[in-house]
Amino acid sequence: MEARIAELIPRLRRYARALSISGLPSDGLVRATLERAGQELGGAQTRSDLRGWLFGLMHDVYVRSLAGIEEGGLANDGSPPGSFEQVIGELTAGQREVFLLVTLEDMRYDEVARALNVPIGTVMSRLSRAREKLRLRLTSQARLRASK
Amino acid sequence: MRPARPLPVGEAELHAYVDGQLAHDRRAAVEAWLAAHSEDAERVSAYRLLAEQWRAAYEPVLAEPVPRALATVLLPRAVSRFPRRAAIVAALATAGLGAWALFEADHVPSSAAAEMVRRAAIAHAVYATEVEHPVETWAGAKAQLLAWLSERLSMKVDAPDLGAAGLSLMGGRLLPGDKAAAALLMYEGASGQRVTLYWGPEYRQAQETGLQFGRRDAPRVYYWLDDECGYAVASADLTQQDLQRVARLARDQLEK
Q1: For B12, which of A124, B50, B54, B118 could close a Cys bridge (C-beta 3.0–4.6 Å)?
Q2: For the complex shown, is ipTM > 0.90?
Q3: Distance from the B81 Cα atom to the nearest Cα atom in chain A, whole angstroms
Q4: Which CATH superfamily is domain A2-143 in?
């Protein structure tokens, strides 16, 4: 089980990197997620959907971490204007999660709903809002560039 | 009975279409809708572009080495780790090396790669210091050596030409890996510096890694994994820069 989780670490890191906003170190998210996973592994359960379970744990960690950070001032948090980090910062946390799980992880909508523990209708409305906000940024796509 | 009028296409279906999650029997209806509604068609292509941009921007994270602090979070703690280390120390003591305790990888992208780096480092430490029997079969019988190793590893084992780095093939040997056979080729330079190339087919993985730095302390290790085999180039004699050059030289010939 630990080996199968280890194989998923690069994907957890990718998601955390894209999800993270400044002031929230992305590897810290991964670390806290893995620690949670380690604590819960003690149970005898076999995880048929290991990926969904891990991304669900990261969701819990993420939401808790954000509670400690002032939401709202995120758009102007010092990220380079037009960077992926800054653009994603304009979405709500829930929109960010849904958009990134669907886009980076190719998760099915029902898997996203389970991982985030929300109804599938909420997944769809968040996805729709996230994409509309991001689409409006496409006009400035030339300025979009990756940042760590 | 008249055929049922197709249901109008909803917002959720446009997204499902973008994400390849649309029910098969709705595909034609959505495509017809998009053909008739250019604004929605533009949104769909914008959404696809967004997905491509985000994937491209974050794809490189997958190839980054996993920081050690993360890779070790889930390792079984002292209880199960200690006997393994003790076993390594014991094995090395018998090999006349004394208590050279730790052969751990510095940068650990996966537990499989870390294990291979550790094995390659141990193999180097044990055999490169051998005076009488550094190799099992000498390079004089290179063709037979490579044919034999290829047969035992069930893949084509080749000896890259490292002459450009002043190294020539001494020979090689068969090694036990974790669950399968591995091979070690040894090279030597004019001043006696030794470099080993470890072949571990059991560490292969679909996702190629590119050349990675695996171990800082001597023996230093560079490695890469592809879908056929895991490879590690180790040396206790070369500087990191020189070893990297040698590893590149080897990889360029093996990955072409």
Answers
A1: A124
A2: no
A3: 14
A4: PhyR, sigma-like (SL) domain (1.20.140.160)
